[in-house]
From TrEMBL:
Gene3D superfamilies, alphabetized: Zn(2)-C6 fungal-type DNA-binding domain
Region listing for Disordered, in residue ranges: 82-128
Keywords carried by this UniProt record: DNA-binding, Metal-binding, Nucleus, Transcription, Transcription regulation
Chain intervals with Polar residues compositional bias: 91-102
Compartments where found: Nucleus
GO molecular function ontology, one term from the record: DNA-binding transcription factor activity, RNA polymerase II-specific
Record flagged with keyword Transcription regulation: yes
Single GO cellular component term: nucleus
Pfam families to which the protein is assigned, alphabetical: Zn_clus
Organism: Cyphellophora europaea (strain CBS 101466)
This protein's name: Zn(2)-C6 fungal-type domain-containing protein
Length: 592
């Protein structure tokens, strides 16, 4: 290596090429001193090898100043978010609504350049802010215009619709608070201040028939605009109102077949409850009570107080436990969940209150099932032994105690002529029956020579319990219900089809009844429409048609484990299986 080359290397080092300025390659390996002033260092000369200077490796860890750069970028993003929130919440004051000339004169002299001509708008609108740059989005501008065209009475009606259709099975909002927020909206409505009202309107605009005046594209556009506002505020402000709003958006996303988003939002809700200290309060409260008395408190409709905060925490735990039942991963607050698991078989639900009983089942009664399904999913070979059957029987008896202890699902005619229906009774029964299938479906042997307990219980649940329940509810109540209901019926319908495949039998009336209910759920929720398409595709395969994904027929895979795969399949094949609900979900097969 010549001195000239070494000088070039030195100049390159100063230019930032990353070459070592002190040691050659071999000396670095030997960890010896290297004299770079020679054409070849002493060690390389003795070893009779070429002296090579190579780029030095990157050092481990973060480079100097990297954390400071990230902090500066974070501060910049936070300032932009704050300016966005201020812009969204700003209102033209009476002074800003005066003539443009008076507005300019009222501004400080230093704020207006000498060459600035009188503006055509109030001065508060002239500064280019990030919020204004965002408003350059045509879809956003169109959504704001749609919002401004809606009368206040119309928005008030949409808010009231939530309490008629959704509050009975998701009583997390205060009627007085929401209706006061709706009544205090300005005219015209350019921005909705209350985050809970925003979330309610986002859901109702997307799914309620009351919002069809905007058209299909318009209602979806405005709904997504309000949804994005809810997420922006809720993710930057940890509060009880943010938790309620995110729960509503999570239900909205589940119905729109965006289950992954629901998982993420409910995870945020859990962590927000933990951040607010709700889980710690809940844990200390239930540890001080008798295990048999642990459970959610009565729903407090006043909208305040410690009891209401605890109720929201219980509702979040229950909804999260139900929506993730069957996934092969666990993501929960360990201390609280472990305690709830330890009292699952000794805690007694308050069966006189159907909602409290359902939340008790979801948050406490399902904990052993979560643990069992998780442990089975981690096994390389899922064997069935006597201990497994004993554990399953213990879970089954505990689940059925919720059904046996509550009143039967029924319609009651009130004095004013209205029909009273309790959706929480349906939720509890459906959840128990679907959970029973989830427990036993991976243990079933369709070709066993002796009576198979897992098969018998799954058949009884699908052919008797589930069908009796479905026949006790109307089509309208199946439609105006939680989107999670469709997944419970899908579990039973899928098992029926797998049994037909294994035993080479045709579908029966029980399967048709369950399919009809899923079809009714699909009138409102896009997610249920996808399930309907997948099941019809499976029926086509049973009749010699093209196949659905193979995992559909593998009962060791849960309905949530195969959800995304079925979603992709249905998006490619839905045109082949769509059929009008008036003629049945798959009656067209008989016309081939």
């Amino acid at each position: 290596m010549t001195r000239r080359h070494m000088d070039d290397d030195s100049s390159e080092e100063s230019g930032g090429d990353g070459r070592s300025a002190t040691v050659c390659f071999l000396c670095r390996q030997r960890k010896t001193k290297c004299d770079r002033t020679l054409p070849s260092c002493g060690f390389c000369l003795k070893a009779k090898v070429d002296c090579q200077y190579v780029p030095k490796p990157n050092k481990r860890g973060l480079r100097a100043g990297y954390v400071s750069q990230l902090e500066n970028r974070l501060e910049h993003l936070e300032s932009e978010i704050e300016s966005l929130k201020r812009e969204e919440t700003s209102r033209p004051s009476s002074q800003a609504l005066q003539s443009p000339l008076s507005t300019v004169h009222a501004a400080p002299a230093g704020d207006t350049p000498a060459s600035f001509s009188p503006p055509q708008r109030p001065a508060v609108w002239t500064a280019p802010t990030p919020a204004k740059r965002q408003r350059l989005n045509p879809e956003t501008d169109a959504a704001v215009r749609d919002l401004m065209t809606l009368p206040n009475a119309y928005l008030y009606t949409l808010a009231e619709t939530w309490f008629k259709e959704n509050q009975p099975w998701c009583p997390i909002l205060s009627h007085e608070h929401i209706m006061d927020a709706a009544a205090s909206l300005p005219t015209p409505v350019e921005y909705i201040e209350d985050i809970e009202l925003r979330a309610v309107l986002a859901l109702e605009l997307s799914y309620s028939t009351q919002a069809i005046c905007l058209g299909y594209h318009g209602r979806r556009r405005l709904s997504q605009y309000l949804r994005s506002q809810v997420l922006t505020e809720a993710l930057s402000d940890a509060s009880l109102g943010s938790v309620r709003a995110l729960v509503i958006v999570g239900l909205m996303d589940y119905g729109a077949d965006n289950i992954a988003s629901t998982f993420s939002l409910l995870s945020v809700c859990r962590r927000t409850c933990e951040h607010l200290g709700l889980f710690k309060k809940l844990l200390s409260q239930i540890q001080g009570e008798s295990p048999s008395q642990v459970g959610p408190p009565p729903v407090n409709t006043s909208g305040g107080g410690h009891a209401h905060m605890i109720s929201v925490a219980w509702a979040t735990l229950g909804l999260d436990a139900v929506s993730t039942l069957g996934v092969s991963w666990r993501d929960a607050s360990a201390a609280l969940v472990d305690h709830l698991s330890s009292i699952a078989y000794v805690s007694t639900p308050y069966l006189r209150d159907s909602y409290r009983a359902h939340v008790h089942l979801a948050a406490i009664g399902l904990q052993p099932v979560h643990q069992f399904l998780y442990e089975r999913s981690q096994m390389q070979v899922q064997t069935v032994d006597e201990n497994t059957l004993i554990k399953c029987d213990e879970m089954y008896q505990n689940l059925m105690s919720y059904v046996h202890g509550q009143p039967r699902t029924r319609y009651t005619i009130l004095e004013n002529g209205l029909v009273d229906f309790d959706p929480n009774l349906v939720h509890t029964e459906t959840l128990v029956y679907a959970t029973t299938v989830m427990i036993y479906q991976g243990l079933v042997d369709f070709h066993a020579t002796t009576p198979d307990v897992p098969l018998q219980r799954c058949v009884k649940v699908c052919n008797e319990n589930m069908v009796t329940l479905v026949r006790s509810i109307s089509d309208a109540d199946a439609e105006l219900n939680t989107p999670l209901l469709a997944h419970f019926f899908f579990v039973a319908a899928r098992f029926k089809l797998v049994m037909c495949m294994q035993l080479s039998e045709p579908t029966d009336i029980a399967f048709d009844t369950i399919m009809h209910t899923i079809n009714m759920c699909a009138r409102r929720w896009g997610f249920a429409r996808r399930l309907d398409i997948v099941l019809r595709g499976a029926v086509v395969e049973l009749n010699g048609g093209p196949p659905v994904p193979p995992d559909f027929w593998d009962l060791k895979r849960s309905h949530l484990d195969i959800s995304e795969e079925l979603k992709q399949w249905s998006s490619l094949h839905k045109g082949l299986h769509l059929d009008g609900s008036t003629s049945g979900p798959y009656s067209w097969l008989s016309r081939k």
